[in-house]
Amino acid sequence: MGSEDYLHALETGKILLFTPLLMSLIPLISGCPTNGPELGPEAGFSAGFMIAAGFFTLVYTSILRFRKGLRKE
After folding, report:
1. What is the DSSP letter of 47?
2. Rounded to whole angstroms, what are the CA distances from 25 to 5, 30, 45, 56?
3. Domain with 52 in it
4. Which of 13, 32, 44, 47 stands 20 to 30 A from 73 (CA)?
5. C-alpha–C-alpha distance, residues 35 and 57, integer Å
6. 12-44 pLDDT per residue, tens
């Protein structure tokens, strides 16, 4: 993997990790949880999958970069 590929993987991981968190802040800030639409458990389930995918993408990329650094030394 080139250095550009690592950077793109890190950006993708950050996007997958923080998008559900930021989108859940909007209803909290505006006060919509009490009178907003009910999303149901499916929304939380899919947000959990997005966060997990982002976390594992970051972990995988960091392991690859660490292993590449060990080979150079």
Report:
1. H
2. 30, 9, 17, 23
3. 3-72
4. 13
5. 35
6. 888 888 888 887 777 667 666 565 556 667 777
